[in-house]
């Protein structure tokens, strides 16, 4: 599942779509190549004005969309992050995160931690 910048802007309730590009540009070092891609779109139109329209758009994977939402500051961003994580959990089958050293926790701590994860 991939989202365009415009779709993310709408989902996160931004009025302008370029906000997503601004968020991405400010935090580009946090995105991996599997989180975002740039596509070159070409649309043919039969008119006197345009023969072809070419446009570059940025798309984001679920992980990329989640990261954009981490940097977003709209009221809906928190719910959007939960929604994306729910989809990722369904795709993988269970949460991916595993504590590095579970033996550091007591038995009670481990049970409480498992409920959080």
Give the biggest beta sheet.
3 strands, antiparallel
Please tell me how large the radius of gyration is: 19 Å
Alpha-beta content class: alpha+beta
Number of helices: 5
Molecular shape: globular
Q: pLDDT under 50 segments (min length 5)? A: 101-117
Share of helical residues: 40-55%
Output the strand order for the largest sheet.
1-3-2
For the terminal residues, how far apart are their CA atoms? 24 Å
Mean pLDDT: 79
Number of strands: 3
Element pattern in H and E: EHHEEHHH
Number of domains: 1
Describe this structure in words.
This protein is α+β, with helices and mostly antiparallel strands. The chain has one domain. It has helices at 5-11, 18-26, 62-71, 77-92, 107-116; strands spanning 2-4, 36-44, 52-61. It has a 3-stranded antiparallel beta sheet. Strand 2 and strand 3 form a beta hairpin. Helix 1 (5-11) packs across helix 2 and helix 3 packs antiparallel against helix 4 (77-92). The model is unreliable at 101-117 (pLDDT under 50).
Concise description?
The chain has helices at residues 5-11, 18-26, 62-71, 77-92, 107-116, and strands spanning 2-4, 36-44, 52-61. The protein is of the alpha+beta class. The chain starts with a strand and ends with a helix.
What is the secondary structure topology, with strand pairs?
Layout: E1 2-4, H1 5-11, H2 18-26, E2 36-44, E3 52-61, H3 62-71, H4 77-92, H5 107-116
Antiparallel strand pairs: 1-3, 2-3
């Amino acid at each position: 599942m991939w989202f365009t910048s415009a779709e993310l802007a709408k989902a996160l309730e931004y009025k302008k779509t370029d906000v997503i590009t601004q968020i991405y540009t400010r935090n580009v070092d946090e995105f991996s190549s599997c989180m975002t891609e740039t596509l070159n779109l070409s649309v043919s139109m039969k008119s006197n004005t345009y023969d072809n329209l070419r446009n570059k758009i940025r798309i984001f994977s679920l992980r990329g969309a989640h990261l954009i939402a981490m940097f977003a500051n709209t009221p809906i961003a928190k719910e959007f992050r939960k929604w994306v994580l729910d989809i990722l959990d369904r795709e993988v089958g269970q949460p991916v995160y595993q504590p590095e050293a579970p033996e550091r926790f007591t038995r009670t701590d481990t049970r409480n931690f498992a409920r959080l994860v």
